[in-house]
Amino acid sequence: MNVNIFFAAVPNPDNRQLLSQKILQCEAKRSSQLKIDWSHLTDLHITLGYLSGVQDIDLRAIAQSFLFLNQTSKFLATIKDVRIFGNAIVLRMEPYQTFLGLFKKMKQQLQVTLQNKYQFKEHDRFDAHITIGRIQAPRTLTPPQKLQLCNIVAEQFANTTIVIQQVALMQRIPEHLLRNAKSAQYQALQGYNFK
User: Fold this and answer.
1) Residue 25 has pLDDT above 90, yes or no
2) How far apart are CA 21 and CA 179, in angstroms?
């Protein structure tokens, strides 16, 4: 069976709680015309890279190959800005070079361990981000509503700094195992704690 997995930098529990509280403030201030599915507390992560079509038999080798990440030093990350991509409300993160460096190390290790069997999905530019919510019916969002939503989110999250002390190999929970739409959508398969 093939699965889709991804790697994510994970804020510490206190910082996840802080982000969740800020999301609640955004919910309280949003327009009643907008319906938003906000991210669950345990789903808050900084996306680093996706691997699609991974065979079950390779999961253990992939997880083991990234044990070197345990030697990474924890660091501070700051929310740079807010963007809306399609239906996703995302917080773009800094320091860009630190996140990009982590991604490059993982990419290189993956190539060595599994001889280029899998490749991280790459876009034109690497973009470390946290998805904090998804807009229902995003096509109905007018430019003024989009601007208002971005301003509300930016006001709550401006200059927020969080501690990054772990990277995790993660997977979306299969639909048939989800308790409900408001529950966590992702599960960690393997964590790598920073020193």
Assistant:
1) yes
2) 23
